[in-house]
Structure prediction request, 139 residues.
Amino acid sequence: MKEPNTIPAATYAAGSAAAPADLDPLSSTSSLALTSRPSSSGTNAARDVFLWLKQVAQDPDLPPLGYRLAIIISQCVDRRKGYAHPSHSQLQEALGASRRGIQKTVAALELRDHLGVTVGRGAGHANRYKLKLAPGRSR
Prediction:
């Protein structure tokens, strides 16, 4: 059963070459790429991602890097699993930010209740990020 405040978003997978390079914003800086998987809820998932991005954009207390990080994380969510799991190094590379900058920005998104974070279990296990819509903003 789907959690009420989490968003399944676009499907991504590491190392896939299914998407043309011009459609993949991370293709030149990361190994994340779009995979084409049919989904019956694709339209609703895309709508929810746009609602979440609008929610983040309307938050005046986030640092500017917060908006850019939100876009990258939203593009990495796996619809089947319901979360994104890019590593800090992938986020650093995509955004040109320091590791500490990524950590602070993730913490700000989590503190402002835009993002749910499950910390990875040791080296080589990336954190999991769930997009959270404010009550009343979901379908």
Summary: Strands lie at 12-14, 32-34, 77-78, 83-84, 115-118, 128-131. The domain at 12-131 is CATH 1.10.10.10 (Arc Repressor Mutant, subunit A).
